[in-house]
Amino acid sequence: MTDAYVVGVDMIKFGRFPDRTVPQIGAEAALLALDDCGLTIQDMQALYSGNLGQAAGMVGQRILQEIGQTGIPVVNVANACATGATAFREAWASVKAGLYDCVLAVGVEQMGKGLLGGGAATTGIPKEGLLGSGTMPAVFAEAGMEHTRKYGTTFEQFAKVSVKNHHHSTLNPKAMYQIETPLDTVMNAEMISYPNTKLMCSVNVDGSAAAVICSEKKAKELGLMGRAIKVRASVLASDPWQQRDLVMPDVNSCTRLAAQEAYEMAGLGANDIDLIELHDCFATAEILHYENLGICGDGEAGRLIDDGEVALGGRIPVNVSGGLLSKGHPLGATGIANIYEISTHLRGEAGGRQVEGARIGMTHVIGLGSACALHILEKV
Amino acid sequence: MSEQALLPTVPYIKIPDNGDPYLEGYRCGSCEATFLGERAVCSKCGSRDQMSTVTLPNSGKLYSYSIVYRSFPGIEVPYISAIVDLDDGTAIKGNLINVEPDPANIEFDMPVDVIFADALGRKDSEGNSYLAYFFQPKV
What we know:
Structural class of chain A: alpha/beta
CATH architecture of chain A: 3-Layer(aba) Sandwich
Order of helices and strands of chain A: EHEHEHEHHHEEEHEHEHHHHEE
Strand order of the largest sheet of chain A: 3-2-4-7-1-8-11-10-9
Number of domains of chain A: 1
Order of helices and strands of chain B: EEEEEEEEEE
Number of helices of chain A: 12
Number of helices of chain B: 0
Oligomer: heterodimer
Number of strands of chain B: 10
Largest sheet of chain B: 6 strands, mixed
Low-confidence stretches of chain A: none
Radius of gyration of chain B: 16 Å
Helix content of chain A: 25-40%
Distance between the termini of chain A: 18 Å
Strand content of chain B: over 45%
Distance between the termini of chain B: 30 Å
Structural class of chain B: mainly beta
Shape of chain B: globular
Number of strands of chain A: 11
Largest interface: A-B, 39 and 44 residues
Strand order of the largest sheet of chain B: 1-10-9-6-7-8
CATH class of chain A: Alpha Beta
């Protein structure tokens, strides 16, 4: 099978754009990604479009109606918070399989403000606040408290994740926020669902990101190898059965399964990874994934955040973009925005937040339900 | 009593004509995995037609929790959203009540009882009242 390369990739600055349509927001990133490699929509042989909020709305075709209706096949993808990464992976798979040699993946989302999850009853009475909570801050708080139960992880350690990621975002002009949040500010912010305060919850924003993927042969023909990023591994996993599945969505075992497969596919280990963009939908979640992705041993995640190993300048910087916590989390766009962030570092184009000498990076997303998508990228 | 009978908040709350309410699980005869809610196929081992109903125990231990301070409009906060492992290993989620919602008062593995009570006064569009389950510290 051919190797597949990201030759063009970009994202818009995340924000709130209530006056624009989802296809308009998606089209902007698509054009940016095409411009990044100097190609046009006429060069694309297929479009893989990720969007959750209008999953039945043919968003991919409507993006083409904004930027060029060339008649190419369009696949619309929805996979919770793994939507963008899944669209990217479908694009990658089509190139790997030899079906196409130059395709476009777009992820886009327009979000409202406020809580996700839980919500109104379809029949009977609402269960929220009656049979526990289905809100996302509570669900991920419970997942974090499982870590506390096992290893004694503290509220302060969880809060340090937000301090770090908000600090990182001050160096990322495309992040929703660029605001320092010291530890006491994070810990004293409004408590949403203990131990997650408001500053420990990801930001609901509008955004889009896009990537152009080519076969090795095509990238060479087009003279695009100079900035091309090789996809060393692309893995998608669902949640293997666990006893507590029905009441406690499991973000751990599917991440561990995907990580194992990704390292195997890439022929690499966790020690080979120079930086990671992982799914910090809540500060509690990031702690879990240090261990799930194998960058430390079980029970060592608290120490990792305490010692600054996962901060910019540390042993393995995590979420240098600011992460979902501060860059923002437009569900369908997040997976491809992660690809953009890693690619930018591997190209040495990340400016003030550049992870020096980065050669290999990893992206991770979790869609509750559950879907885990992992990519390992390398600048060759 | 002339009072109208309470309806179950979820299908796995069983309210017998005579006797106390209880939680009903479905257990796989092949692999022993237990589920809340009716099903025909086991999602652990894939066995078909091996499911049978079991009465779930009314006690367990606190596995994990969150204290919820922000919820949807009309939902009273704070409250404790709790994951409980029942004595037979079945995991179930609900409100932990009769405990001050403060981490200092909540211990992992604290023994809890499952109790049944009116669903916080919530009624459906037809005015029906419901029976829910709650966890409270074992006394």
